Structure formats: C-alpha cells, structure tokens
Amino acid sequence: MRRTMGRTAAMSAAALLLASAAACGGRDEGGGGSTAEGACEGQQTTGITDETIKLGGIYPLSGPASAYGAIPKGIKAYFDYVNAEKDGIDGRTVEFIVRDDGYQPPKAVEEARRLVEQEQVFALFQTLGTPSTTATWDYANQRKVPQVFVATGASKWGTDGEHPWTIGWQPNYISEARVYAQYLKQEKPNAKVAVLFQNDDFGEDLLGGFKKAIEGSGITIVQEESYEVSDPSVEPQMRDLAGSGADVFLNVTTPKFGSQALAADAKIRDWNPLHIVNNVAASVTVLEPVGFDNVQGVVSATYYKDPNDPQWADDAEMKLYREKLKQYVPNADPAVPYHAFGWAVASSFHKTMEAAECKTREGLRDSMRNLADVEVPMLLPGVTMQTGEGDGFPIESMQMMRFEGERWHLFGDVIDTRKAFGPVQHP
C-alpha cells in the first residue's frame, strides 16, 4: 500500500499553501483534527483532534465468551496510564468506549453502527471474535473506518485484499496450527489426533490450518467433533472422541468450552492423550476451575509474557503493567493473562498510531499495514510486529508452553512460522 509522503516533504508542500490553511478537514460531519502536512489534506479526521482521540471496542462482556471481558480492563489500564502520565498518544488523550455484543454477530453490527455513527469514534479498536468481526468488517470497509487489531486470529484478516481497513493482531489460527503440527512432527511423528472444534470460521480455520500443516507426515486425524456456541456442554463430544483411539487431543475451543473439555478429559480415566489446547482457551482462568492437578502436562503456544511466570518478575514492562493495572483498574487481578493481553494490544496501537504519518483514518490504515519489526515490550523476546505488501499478519511467531504445577512453562525456541512454512493462504 502506498505510504504518504515523509514529514519533511509534506511540511515543505504545506508551506506552499495559504498561511490560513493549517487544518486537515474531515470528509464526514465529525471531522475536526488538524495537521500541517499537505499530503493529509482531505483525509478523514472524525474522532480525532489535536487534543483527543476516540476509540470504540466491541467485546462479549456477557454470554458464552464473557471470559474475554477481562481484555478491555487491561486496555483501560494502559490508556489511563498514558493519558495521566505520558501526555496521551502524540499529545492526545485517549477515550476508549466499550460495548457488549454478548458474542452475537447481529448485536456486534448494531454496536459498530452506534460507535461509528453516534459516538463518532476515530477507529474500531478490537472487535472480539471471528463471528462478530466477520459480521462487521463490510460495514467498517464501506465507512472507511479502521478496524484495528481485531481480537481474533482468523486468517482472512490478513489474506483478504478487499477489506484494507480491518487487520488482526494475534497470530492467525493457521500459524498457530502450524506450531502444533511442527511440535508433533518432532515429538510424536506418528500421532493419531482427535479434534474438538467450534463450528464456525474460528474452529474451521485452525483445524484447516492443522490439516494442511500435517500433510505428508505420519500424523493422522482419526476423529473430529464439533460444537455450537449455544450448546450447554461438550461432554457428549468428548465421550465420542475418547473412543477414537487417539493419542493426541487437539482442543480448538473458546474459554467456556475449553474448560469443559479439559474437565471431561480429566474424568475419562481410560483415555490419556497428549492434550493441546489452543491459545485463546489457555488462560489460567480457564484451567483453574478444572483443578490444576487435572491439567498437568497440557500444552499450548503463546506470544506474550505470562504475568504468572516468575521469569518476568523483574521485567520492566511487567512491573509497569502490574503497578498501573492496580492503580487504574483496582478490581482487576494482574495474574489474569487476558489483562496482560489487553495491555499488550493497547501498547501496540500506541506505537502504530505514533508511526502514522497522517493522524487520520487513512494514516492509521497505512501505518497498521506497514509495520517494520516493531517491538512491543509485553510480547515475548523475539516476537515483533511486521506487516507489509502481501503480509497482513502483524504477529506470526509463537513459543510452545507446558502446564506444570500452577502455571505455564515456556519450552523450545520461538517459532517464526513465516520462515518455517511460508506465507499463509486462506483455505
């Protein structure tokens, strides 16, 4: 995507304008930001001024995926911190408005419209869930509103060329599946795998990526079972999978069902597979209700620092996160990884917005698609944000982890799936 001209050249161009022409007017009724850069003239400034920037997020604060409601607390802590102590982002105070869609796509559309048309937000920052984001990205694209760092790893956010205003953040599900496939190729090259997956784009994306990644290996999938987000329980599916003869169980679920699957696995005494739980259901808050004794040896993969891991006790960013979460969101437990996730993604937005050459919607769109090995302190060492022409995936590196005792333990090296497997293609 073409970058806007550099700051020096733009300021030179601006000098040719009439002295009174200092503002960069918005194209729609909410415009009001300003800049001296002539290259930015006519671009959208709804929701941003020289003093403020308004963002809107959509999360399942209620419903079957309500565990994710912890994420905006971490985001709030970060933005409150930079507002109070760092003069905001580029001198602008951040207002972050959170809406609840209950993990219901029609509700997500309703909330997106409310945020854009009534609240006049500058950008939609974090729409959580593949179904909700799928339901809203056409609208964001039509309105030319950045839909930044959506909280879903669906591969289409990075492979679709018709929605430049929407981009993911976390490793896409195909990349995550590749990490598990590579791990099995090394540790259990003749694995027989049973899979439980959510019957939507999320589940099908990760499962499809896994199938592709094991092609040509000795690893086979012996049984698959799906569930709907409206299902009360996945125990029936787990009982069926237990009779498959599999020695590996791939658990592709959201938190509520991930916890149910872990509990069911623990109850089935004559089935003891290697249990792989996908990252989105790997929080300690998912495992703890099952009982830590029942989840020993479960493996997953991650890309950001776990606040429960003592190796980060003296880490400067982790100490800052703990201090500011306690200060600005005192009811939030810093040990909950979803809070750290929120802090990390807010920090990522901060860096992306600062790098935008035009402080406009178009400028943010271009910046989020031209990230050059951006370091975010809450990400694991060796994990950076990188996007560019033909690459719409900010993070594609992960490291395996195993649950032992009362926390996750990292093992092995960070795996850059770009290098290990090549570009992701949407199945």
TrEMBL record:
Keywords: Signal. Residues 52-404 form the Leucine-binding protein domain. SUPFAM superfamilies: Periplasmic binding protein-like I (SSF53822). The keyword Zinc-finger does not apply. Residues 1-25 form the signal peptide. The keyword Signal applies. Belongs to the leucine-binding protein family. This is ABC transporter substrate-binding protein. It comes from Actinomadura sediminis. The lineage of its organism: Bacteria, Bacillati, Actinomycetota, Actinomycetes, Streptosporangiales.
